[in-house]
Amino acid sequence: MTRKKRRLYFIALGMLALGAATALVLSAIGDSLLYFYSPTDLEERPVAEGQRFRLGGLVEEGSVEKDGETVRFVVTDLIHTVPVAFTGILPDLFREGQGVVTEGRLSGAGLFVADSVLAKHDETYMPKEVADSLKDSGYWKEGAAPDAGPAQ
């Protein structure tokens, strides 16, 4: 075997190992990704029942109902809404009309069962994904209150 052929085999073996390592890394990353959806995204692209994802938007005014440790509320992007059920302790800053990101699964009845709720930390903060979703829908602009209606 000539030096040139040996070098070619060595390069091919290295490329094969690199490809296998890349495939393993991408497979591991794909299993741990949590996709973000707004209520409008769920209407446009349905999610498989039982798939974990993040749901973000605004807590609809007048929608929070507490029953012991279980809290039910509605997340909206001012176009569509999704009912949410959460059992546990809500963040101190959770309230109606504010931005929220929840993690969990969609049940067969269209109810989002959250296992964690993240709320804003001051009056000017809005989760980036939620703000982007509201901006895309035309209901949010920088410095405006989220319930100000469509941007002009």
From TrEMBL:
<keyword id="KW-0479">Metal-binding</keyword>
<feature type="topological domain" description="Extracellular">
    <location>
        <begin position="29"/>
        <end position="152"/>
    </location>
</feature>
<dbReference type="InterPro" id="IPR004329">
    <property type="entry name" value="CcmE"/>
</dbReference>
<feature type="binding site" description="axial binding residue">
    <location>
        <position position="125"/>
    </location>
    <ligand>
        <name>heme</name>
    </ligand>
</feature>
<dbReference type="GO" id="GO:0017004">
    <property type="term" value="P:cytochrome complex assembly"/>
</dbReference>
<dbReference type="GO" id="GO:0046872">
    <property type="term" value="F:metal ion binding"/>
</dbReference>
<dbReference type="GO" id="GO:0005886">
    <property type="term" value="C:plasma membrane"/>
</dbReference>
<keyword id="KW-1133">Transmembrane helix</keyword>
<dbReference type="Pfam" id="PF03100">
    <property type="entry name" value="CcmE"/>
</dbReference>
<protein>
    <recommendedName>
        <fullName>Cytochrome c-type biogenesis protein CcmE</fullName>
    </recommendedName>
</protein>
<dbReference type="GO" id="GO:0020037">
    <property type="term" value="F:heme binding"/>
</dbReference>
<keyword id="KW-1003">Cell membrane</keyword>
<feature type="binding site" description="covalent">
    <location>
        <position position="121"/>
    </location>
    <ligand>
        <name>heme</name>
    </ligand>
</feature>
<comment type="function">
    <text>Heme chaperone required for the biogenesis of c-type cytochromes. Transiently binds heme delivered by CcmC and transfers the heme to apo-cytochromes in a process facilitated by CcmF and CcmH.</text>
</comment>
<keyword id="KW-0349">Heme</keyword>
<dbReference type="InterPro" id="IPR036127">
    <property type="entry name" value="CcmE-like_sf"/>
</dbReference>
<keyword id="KW-0201">Cytochrome c-type biogenesis</keyword>
<keyword id="KW-0472">Membrane</keyword>
<comment type="similarity">
    <text>Belongs to the CcmE/CycJ family.</text>
</comment>
<keyword id="KW-0812">Transmembrane</keyword>
<keyword id="KW-0408">Iron</keyword>
<keyword id="KW-0735">Signal-anchor</keyword>
<feature type="topological domain" description="Cytoplasmic">
    <location>
        <begin position="1"/>
        <end position="7"/>
    </location>
</feature>
<dbReference type="InterPro" id="IPR012340">
    <property type="entry name" value="NA-bd_OB-fold"/>
</dbReference>
<dbReference type="GO" id="GO:0017003">
    <property type="term" value="P:protein-heme linkage"/>
</dbReference>
